[in-house]
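Please, structure for the following, as tokens.
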Amino acid sequence: MKKLEPQHLNKKASKLMLKPKYDGQINSGFDSISGRGVNIPHQFKSWITCSPFPQQAIADLENLLEHFPDCLEGDEPGISQSLAVLGYSHFLSRRLIRHPGWVKNLRLSNNLEIPRFDAELSETLTKRVESKKTWSSEDLKNLIRSFKYQEYYRLTVRDLLKLATEEIILAELTSLTKITLDWAFRAATLEARQFELSSKSLISNEIHPPFLILGMGKLGGQEINYSSDVDLIFVHDENPITGDEAEDQKLRQKIARTFIEWCTEHTKEGFLARIDMRLRPGGDSSALVLPLQQVEAYYWSKAELWEQQALIKASYVAGDKEIAEIFFRSINPYIYRKSVDENLLEGVIEIKEKIEKEHLQESQLNVKLGVGGIREVEFFVQIFQLLYGGIRSELREQNTLKALSALTQAGIISVEDGSTLKKCYLILRKYEHRLQMMEEQQIHTLPSTQFEQQCFARMMGFCSSNAEADRQSM
């Protein structure tokens, strides 16, 4: 397996800043657009020329002009900002063609530099739900998906134009995912119980949540990708819903299945999330929704070390908050032990070696699971959390970077090591985002051909003749 070293990879990328061989085709595309009497601002021309896929950007621009003839009118900075995804994210460019109004709204918003988290995102989606008294299942699914992708568009522009740090982008993506999952859960609960999807019922959330939804992995850690699986666990407290225990159990499972369908179904507006339920106690062999006492008993008596490690990132996503409070009070002493088994460190190393072995045959560099990759930073942090979290409560952080900072402040790792790991982690997460940004696909391996490497290097912002200076500014 190749060793993944961010500094080395950046230098390698900087050597790939070859001038595109298709300059003539790019200029021909610009001339074709100008021939329609459309003026392309110089700043935007430069942006497209430096993009990883300029020919695709021009084709997408021509399609967008068919639906939104005024998209190149207005102030030059506003044009370059609102159309920044062209040549970088083809799946978002296609959505702009379906929703040209998003471009206009982004220009008029005047708040592109301001992050949007749970409260503001929920308020925006609430107003959209309020626009109709009742909703069909299909229309509401499309509304929530459209909201997700419009926010993806805003976030991608912020990301590409460096209007937010990588940490903020990760947090915003996580907030967006949690809010859309929460609304899907509200709708699925009503639909499974054969209630009307009225805006009043959806907004008030007047039906008591039938269970708790826990987020694991990157969702739980507030560090989700542009194209992540969403790892979830469903827990209920056995309080009656209908008064019939057997019927209640069936209803909870039905609501869980309906919720998963609400998230994974592909409609004309796309999908909401890829749901992965394999981290629940018992995995695929157990019910989708499990009673709290059974979950607690499983972790305390049957769970393996990797399951203890995975719980470090567990956090509330949606549903019953009271169950969440009970669950975390019960499970924290299991995750963070006052006295640590001497075999713990060996066990974590075995898990890591098993993952590495599975990827030994890969010829490409895997930014997530490869040697020196994202998972190695996470493992490093989590080992110390398991070792010292029982006696140092400040280490009990779901987020990798917050936990890394806490380890540094506690003096458990040096400031220099903490700074290096943070820098490496963030650049690797940026690689991961750029790999997934083009087509919303789960990609973790760096490209292998020279042409693909050149495109990816440009995706990372290496476009000038002084590529090393570009690298240092990242």
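The longest strand covers residues 229-236. Confidence is low (pLDDT under 50) at residues 1-19.
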